[in-house]
Amino acid sequence: MADALFLAGDRYHTAEDSFSTLGKIIEAAGLEVEYTTDFTAITTEALADKKLLVIHRDGMEWPNGNDADPERWMQPHQEEAIENFVLGGGSFMPMHNSGWNYPHEGGYRRTLGGYWQFHPSFQKFDVHVYNHDHPITAGVESYEIEDEQHFIWFDFERVTLLTRSQEKEGREAASGFCHEYGFGRVVYLANGHKKSSHEHPMVQKLQTNAVRWLLRA
Fold this sequence. Notes:
The structure is a single chain. By secondary structure, the protein is of the alpha/beta class. It has a domain at 4-114 and 176-214: Class I glutamine amidotransferase (GATase) domain (Rossmann fold), CATH 3.40.50.880. The protein contains seven helices and 13 strands. The protein has helices spanning 15-19, 22-28, 44-47, 76-87, 107-112, 195-199, 201-214, and strands at residues 4-8, 33-36, 52-56, 60-61, 71-72, 91-94, 114-118, 123-129, 143-147, 151-154, 160-167, 172-181, 184-189. A nine-stranded mixed beta sheet has the order 2-1-3-6-13-12-11-8-9, sandwiched between helices. A two-stranded antiparallel ribbon has the order 4-5. A two-stranded antiparallel ribbon has the order 7-10. The longest helix is centred in the C-terminal third of the chain and has 14 residues, at 201-214. The chain is globular.
């Protein structure tokens, strides 16, 4: 029986890019992973026997085609399922664009601890370690990466900022943060638009440390 549920893949991101990289890190931590591209898979029942939930996709679906306006896929019962999962002791790892176009006034927003704003085009920028004393940043050095630099609001009064990204022109954004929510834990990491982003050695170190922290390993 799977210990982790990993939802990924949307119009702009290939599920296999994260399944084949972050997924292997989760498996190496000793978990059996259920991989899915089906957002309806997130339910209270599906999470009942899980230790970890990972989401690497945006909140949009396109039922009327790519030329029409998107619709949000997350339903109230799924927000409730995720929030209760974490409050009860489960761990949640939202990645990259998993704060974009989601409900922003309910359980998902509270659980994530932030909300996506925008991103510039795919480009090179720097990521700096902000908190050198946290287990998630252990062994991580500041690095340059080619990726989407995501700008996200975060609840600074209740989350721990781990890393910050800095555009070559100077704009900065939160790039990684974590917090404890109820009996559970949450880690958000912003890098991950392409497989090459996941394969960056410092990104892999952050992801490895994050999974261990989430699992209290």
